[in-house]
Amino acid sequence: GGQKNGPDGCNLFIYHLPATWSDDDIMASFSPFGNVLSATVMRDKATGASKGFGFVSYDAPNAAQQAIQSMNGMNIGGKRLKVDLKTPRPAPY
Question: First vs last Cα of the chain: how many Å apart?
Fold first, then answer.
């Protein structure tokens, strides 16, 4: 487990996840678009409850782009998923 990052342009933030979703649910939903390196639901450390967002990392940017096109705005359990590319933080000078 754990959050593994792929190359730049391959890492996605997923917002508005249904509270019932586990890492496996994210993996199942996002694996059709490419090779998923990791799929993680962010959880409250104290309660283990889902925070409603997570991460998916692919090994190729085109997989991440396909996932955004297919999954962003998808209606799941009455919520619309928001799928965003995680942009690399600019390096300090």
Answer: 33
Specify the 3-state DSSP secondary structure of 91: coil
| 3-state SS, one letter per residue, for 9-41 | CCEEEEECCCCCCCHHHHHHHHHHHCCEEEEEE
Whole-angstrom Cα distance, residue 86 to residue 11?
A: 5
Instruction: Count CB neighbours of 15 within 10 A.
Output: 15
pLDDT, tens only, 50-67? 999 999 999 999 999 999
Angle formed at CA 28 by CA 65 and CA 25, multiple of 5 degrees: 110
Burial label, 34 (beta-carbon count in 10 A; 0-12, 13-18, 19+):
buried
Model confidence at 87, in pLDDT bands (50, 70, 90)?
A: confident
CA triplet 70, 9, 31: central angle to 5 degrees?
A: 40
